[in-house]
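<context>
A single protein, sequence plus fold
<sample>
Here is the protein in question:
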Amino acid sequence: MSGANAQDGRAGLDGDSEFANNLFFVWAAASGGSIVYGKVDSLGSQFFTGYNDNVHLTLSQNTMQAVTKKFVIIALLFVPLVAQGQIDPIGETPEDQAAAITALKGISSNLQKNRDGTVRFVRFSKAVVEDKHLDQIRVFKQLDYLSVITGRVTDVGLANIAQLTNLDSLILTNTQATDTTVALIGKLAKLEVLYLDNTQVTDAGLDHLSTLNELKILSLSKTQITGVGLKSLTGLVKLETLHLKECNLSDEIFETLAEIKSLKSIYLDGTKVTGKGLVQFESLEGLEQLSFNQTPFAPASLEEIQVIVSLKHVLLWGTDITTATLPQNLSAELRQKLRLTPEKSERLSPFQKFIGGQSLDKIEQAKRDSGIFDGIKIDESVAHRFSKATDETPDFQRHVVPMLGKLGCNGRACHGSFQGQGGFSLSLFGYDFATDHLSMLDEDAGRVVPESPDDSLLIMKPTLGIDHEGGRRIAEDSWQLRLLQRWISSGAKRNSEVHELLACQVTPQEIFFSRGKLEQQLQVTAIWSNGLVEDVTALARIETLDDQIAIVDENGRVTNKAKGDTHLVVSYDRAVVAVPVLRPVSDKTGDNYPDIPWRTRVDELVGEKLKRLGIVPSDVCTDQEFLRRSMLDVAGTLPSPTQITEFTNDASLTKRADLVERLLQSEAYIDWWAMKLADVTGANSQHLGSTDMNSPAALQWQRWLRARVAQNASWKEIVAGLVLADSREPGQTYDQYTWEHSSYQAAATKDDFNLPGNSMPYYWARSDLNTAENKVLNFSYVFMGVRLQCAQCHKHPFDQWSKQDFDQFSQIFSRIRWGTEPESQDARTQLMTRLGVPKKLDTAALRRQMYNRVSAEGLPIPWFELYIEPPRTTEHTAVLLGGKPFDLNQFDDPREVLFSWLIDDDNPFFAPAFVNRVWNHYFGVGLVNPVDDLNAGNPPSNAKLMKYLSAGFSGHDFDMKWLHREILLSDTYQRSWRTNETNQHDERHFSYSRLRRLPAEVLVDAIEQSTAKSSRNETYLNDTTQRKITSHPRSLSPNSIDYALAIFGKPTRATNCDCERTAQPTLLQNLYIRNDRELLELIERKTGWLAEVAQQTGIGLHSETSAAILVKANTQVADSSTITADELVTAAYARMLSRRPTAAEMENGRQYIADSDDLVEGLRGLVWALLNTQEFLTNH
C-alpha cells in the first residue's frame, strides 16, 4: 500500500508489511468516494473504515487473487450495513491537517486518524526528525498521543506542544528538552502519561508539573533531578507509577515519596538508595511494586519492607542480596515476593549449563535384568488350573480383568465405550482396575452375588442365562466360567496390595517358518513384583500385523498363510511384546544364497534380513542415477548438465563419497534440511499469535534452525536450544530483556539471535501448546516419534502407555509458561502504555504494526517471555515415561530432568525417532511405519539396523552428517530401482530403490531449474534465492503457501503428524503438470531456457499462455543458428531426466522437432512431454 502516513482510528496505511498482510481492499462506497478496508486475522473478521481521495491503494495481482473470496464475503456483509446507516460516515481530514500529513510523509514513524478524519496519534523516532518537522503538528488540535524520541529535537520544536491541549500521552525520551519545555507541559491539563527520560530536565522544571492533576504515569529516568525537586510531585493525587531509574537519588527521597499516597509502582533502579527509611512506605496502602535493581541495597533494609503489606513484588536483581545474604527473620511471605540476584551456582540457565558442558538435574531410572526368567519355576496357565474344580482364588488384576478383556467385554463396542452398555461401564480395555472393581461391586446392580455366584449378572449375561446384547461370551463348563465363579464366591475382592508386572516374555522370541513347518505354539509368561511367575498365554491378547502372512488363535497357536514376514503383537497387563514371523519368499536361502559383498555395516544388517527371507537385492545404480538421486535427496536440487558430465567422466574411486561431501556443504542442503526441521518442530507464524510478533518470531525460528544446520550443530544441541530455551538469563531484568530481544529485530544486529550460544524460546510459545497435555503430545511427537493421543483417555492394548502414564508425565510440563512473569507484569504494562497500547492502538493489527516498527529500530517493546513457575508448596508428583514417581518440587526447572532423560543412552526414543525420519526421507518408508509411531506394538522392520544406527548416531554425539553419510554411502541406498524375481514385492526390506514422488518444494524447484536459462540452471545448488526449499508457510491455511506446493502435499505444520506431508498422486497434480497456466508460463518465461534458445536461433517465441494452452507460431522464422535438434534433445534429457537419451529416444525427439513448425516449437513440446514423465516426477 502507498500513500500518506495517515490512518483512521483503526488502520494504518503507510507501507508496514506486517499490517499490509492483514488488510485488503473491500469496497469503494458510492457516496463520497470513501474506501472501506477489512481485516481478517486469527481472531476473526473486523471491519475498518478508511479514507477518501488522498489515499492510494496498490495491491499486487497475487494479493488480489489471494483475497478474492474474502472480498466477496466482506462486501456482502458490509454493503447492507452502509445502506442502512449502521456505520458512521467517514469525515474528511481538514485541509490544514491534510497538508501537514503530506509534509510529514517519510518523517513520522506512525500517524493515525480519528473516525472524523482528524489526526489523533503521532510518533517520531527517525533520526532525520528535526525541530522544523514538529512545526507541522501544531494543527493537530485533536492529537491525544505524541511520542518524540529522537535526539535532534530541542525546545524550539517542542514549543509546538503548547497548541496541543488535548494530549493525554506525551513521550519525549532522548530529546533535548529542558525545563522550558516542561513549563509548557505543565499547561496540558489532560495529561495522564509523561515520559521525560534522558532529557535535560532539572528540579526547577518539576515545579511546573505540580498542576497535572490527571497524571498517572511519570518517568524521569536518567535526568538531573534530585530529592529536592521530587517534593514538587507530592500534590499529584492520581500518580500511580514513578520511574526514577539512574537518577542521582539516595534514601532521603523515601520521606517525600511516602507523601504521594496514590503510588502503586516505584522504580529506583541504578540509584544510590540502600533502603534505609523504607518503613515510611507503610502509609502507601496501594503500593504493589518496588524495583531496586542494580542499587547498593542493604540486606538489613528488607526488614523495613515487611510492614508494607500491599507489596506484591520487590525486585533486587543486580544487587548484593542473594538467598544466602537474606536476614534470617524475614517472613516466608516476604521471601516469596523478593526477586534476588542469583547465587553464583544459579547464574547459568539450563541451556547455558548444557552448552558449557555442566551436568543437568536428572532422575536415575531403574534398569531391569534382561535375564529375569532364568531358572525360575513357571506356574501353569489358568486355563489348566481352572479347567477343573480348585480352591485357588483368582486375582482381579492378574486374571479377571485380562480374561474379560480377551473376551471383548471392555472393548470400545461393549462396556468399554464412553457410555457403557446396559448401564454397566468398564474402563476402555480394562486398565483402570480400581474403577472397574467398584463398578462390578455396585450393590444395586447385582453384577456380583458372592452368596450365589451363578446369579451374578457377570456370569448370567455372558453365558446367556439371561438376554445379553453381546451374545454368548463364555461357554458352559469352561475354565473362564470356573474362574469367574471362584472369584465371585471368594468375595469378588481386589488385592489391596497392588503388585507390578515386572516383565512379560514370549517364547519363541521369533517364529521362522520353513518348508513343511507351518504352525507354532506361543507361550506368554509373566513375572510380578511379588515373585509370582505364571503362564498367561490364555489371558494375553495376541494379534497379527498382517493376517495374509500369519494368523493366531485364542490359544496362541500361530499358522502361516503365505511367504513373507510380519509381527505378532502380544499384550498382557501393561506389557506389549512383538514377535517376528518369517517365511522365505524364495529358495535362495542358506548355501543357496548368492555371494554378495556387503560393503558397510548398514549393508550387512540389511543383507542379514534379506538372506533369511530369500530376497536378493538389486544391483548398485549407475553413476547418473546416483548423482540425480543423491542431489535430490540431500540438497533438493537436480544436477545441472555440467555436473552430470563432470561426474560421469570422473574416474575417481571415491567420487560418490566426494559428491556426498560436496552436497553436505552446499547451501541447498542447509536450506532443505532446515526446512525439514522447521516442519517437524512446527515453525509457523499462526502458532505464534501469542507473541504479538508472530511473523518476525517465526522468521527467527526458521533462521535459527538454518544457522544450526549450517554450523552442523548436533541434533542434541538443536533440541537443547528448543527444550531448554530461555528468554531471560537468570538475574536479567525485564527492561534489559526487552532491549536485548528488540535488538534481534534491528537490521544491523538481527543475526545475533542465531549465534551459537543463543537458544530459541518460540517452541514453547506455540498457541497449540497452551496446556500441559498439548505440550506432552507435541513434545512426544517431535522429539520421541511417539503418539500419546490414545493415552490421554485410555491405555490401548497394543501400546504400552496408559492414561496414568500420560497424566503423570504431563506434570513435568505443567510449570512451563509463555507470557509474562508476575513480577514483570507491571513493567510490561508500563511499556505498553508508553507505546499507546491498548488504549490508543486497540486492535491486534495496529498493535503488531507498532511493535514491528519499534523493535525494528532496536527499541524495546513489551515482549512476552518463556518462564518456569516456581515449585509448588503442595505435593507435586511426576513420572518420566517408563520411570518411577518423583517429587517435582525439588527442581527449579523440570526441563532439566526432562532433557537429561530424553538424551540418555537408555532412552529408547530420542535417537531412533530422528534416525527413522531420516531413513524414511531417503527410502520413502521408515524402519518403523508410521514414521512418528514408535511403540512396542509397532516394531521396526529391521530391529538390528535400527539399533545400530541409533547407537551410532548417539555415539557420534548426534551428528546429523554422520547419519547422512552412513546411509548415503551404503549400497543399500545406492541400489538400482530395477527389481528381480525375488524382490519385486519387497516393500520394507530395502532390497531396491523405491520410486518416490519428489517432495512438493523439490518438484516445483525442479520444474523451475530444468526450464531455467543455462546460467541459472548451473547455480541452483548454492544459490537458493527464491527457491521453494526456502519457502515456509505463513499460516496454517493451505492458502499460505503457493498453489503448486499445496497440491503436491507441502505441510503447513498444523498437526502433530508426519503424515501432513503427502506424496499421494491426485487429479489436481495431474492437471497442474499437464496444462496449468503457471507451468506453461514457466516453460516459456523470458528468463527461461526456451527463450534463451529462441534468442540464440533467432526464432521468436509464439504462444498464448493467457488461455493456458500451447499454440503453434503464426509465422515462421528461419533458423540461422548452428543449434541442432540432436543437441536440443540431448540437453533436454540432461536437464529434466539427468541422463543421455537412448537411441530410440533420440530418434523420437529428433523426429518430433523436425515435424514441428520450428526448433523452438519442437523444443517446447519436448520439454512439456519430459516434465510429464514419471521419470521426472520421481526420485529413483
The CA atoms of residues 1037 and 1052 lie 7 Å apart. The chain is about 35% helix and 10% strand.
